[in-house]
Amino acid sequence: MYAKNSIFHFSSKALWSLALVAALGFSACSDDDNDDQPQQEVNEEISGAYFLNYGSYGNGGASITRYNFRKDALTNKYFEAQNPGMTINSNIQYGAAYKDTIYLMGNSADELISLDLHFKPTGNAVREGIEKPRFFVGQGDYLYISCWGANPDWSEMPDSYIAVYNTKTRKVENKIALPGGPEGLALAKGKLYAALNYRPQVAVIDLNSEAIAYIDLPAVSSYFVSAPNENLYLALVSTYSDPSDAAGLAYINTTTDELEDNFALDGVSTSYASILSANSDASTLYLTAAAWEEEGDGNWVQKGAIYSFDTESGVFEEFVTGLTGAQGAAVNPINNDVYILLSASATEAGSVSIYNAEGVHQKDLSVGISPYWTLFLD
Predict the structure, then answer these.
(1) CB-hemisphere CA count at 13 Å for 323?
(2) Residue 317 main-chain phi, psi, to 5 deg
(3) What is the rounded distance in angstroms from the CA atom of residue 224 to the CA atom of residue 254?
(4) Contact between 107 and 93 (Cβ < 8 Å)
(5) Model confidence over 79-106: pLDDT tens digits?
(6) φ, ψ for residue 194, nearest 5 deg
(7) pLDDT per position as a tens digit, 104-113
(8) What are the pLDDT digits (tens) for 119-144?
(9) Which phi and psi angles does 337 have, rounded to 5°?
(10) Would you state the pLDDT for residue 42?
(11) What percent of the chain has pLDDT over 70?
(12) Which residue blocks in the chain are alpha helix, DSSP H?
């Protein structure tokens, strides 16, 4: 049984298993792939974009919205539709598919939730060793989960760590102490890279020895995307606790573990959401630049834009401007449409605006409260 305060409230449960046919975001195949390659068979039962709606912190309201982009069909409260009698009663910090399982980072209560590709629970929620989970990446039988610890001080974050979770035993087997508030993670060349949100460095962890080295940055950071050569792009942000005039994109050479380049862009969003994404071949990146502005009487909203970044020229261009409540963007790996996640408040339904790769608006979708991340399955 699930723990009493699990992310789910339920009256029944079911166990399912399916083979994974696609993964999160830019890692799946696209329409631009070589026509001579065998075409992937579409699983109509799971095909779609899944928006992970965070809800309101401390008040629940998290939900899953499924958009079957092949059939233009939208289903809000998809988890409840798949699991009659069950609801999500916590907040989804992050989620992604790894192998044949979807993993969700639950906040309040802090836990790791596992689901099959139909969003049906596959086992008990894991709490031991999972304190304020943020993000994860997977390799082999292990997930590496960035955690802020039970009592973060919101300044130097001395007790944060990486939890090493065994997907076979369903246990946290190790904790790698990593002060500085690790957020986004990436794997490259046998090393784990951790963006530190409270220290202007990237941690580089040798997964064989667990030795940690650091790459100095001009600002604190949040999330990575991988280049085709396994080098990494990283969003640099200026925060209240660690202000900087060097926000933008960092480019990290994973052979030398050095900051090779830095591309400035003012106002890169500090939201803990999908502020950085890539198209199917990582030739174009999308970065969210949005800041909080007061609209009278203490009402604060995020105003900003989505910028595209050409990785060959190293140039930013405005993609969509004049956005209110921009949380981030995701790119459909099948057709390279850009999904912009919008949330004007933490108490009202959010929306997703879809644009093609040329920046032409396609349609809008109404989703749950605070859409932060998008999971693509096909």
Answers:
(1) 29
(2) -135, 150
(3) 12
(4) yes
(5) 999 999 998 877 999 999 999 999 999 9
(6) -125, 120
(7) 999 888 999 9
(8) 999 987 899 999 999 999 999 999 99
(9) -65, 145
(10) 64
(11) 89
(12) 78-82
DSSP classification of residue 27: G
- Report, in angstroms and rounded to the nearest whole number, the Rg of the chain calculated over CA atoms: 19
Whether residue 65 contacts residue 50, with contact meaning beta carbons closer than 8 Å, is answered with yes
Provide the CA 217 distance to its chain's centre, in angstroms. Answer: 22
Sheet with 182-188: strands ordered across = 182-188, 191-196, 201-206, 212-216
| Residue 44: exposure state from Cβ atoms within 10 A (0-12, 13-18, ≥19) | exposed
Is the Cα dihedral 3, 375, 278, 143 positive or negative? positive
SS3 82: helix
d(C-alpha 196, C-alpha 184), whole Å: 8
Burial class (CB in 10 A: 0-12, 13-18, 19+), 358: exposed
157-197 pLDDT, tens digit each: 999 999 999 999 999 999 999 999 999 999 999 999 999 99
How far is 138 from 157, CA to CA, in rounded Å? 24
Closest CA to 217 of 182, 244, 184, 188: 244
Neighbours of 174 (CB within 10 A): 15
The pLDDT tens digits of the residues spanning 37-89 come to 444 456 778 999 999 999 988 777 899 999 999 999 999 999 999 999 998 87
Q: Alpha-carbon distance 257 to 308, whole Å? A: 25
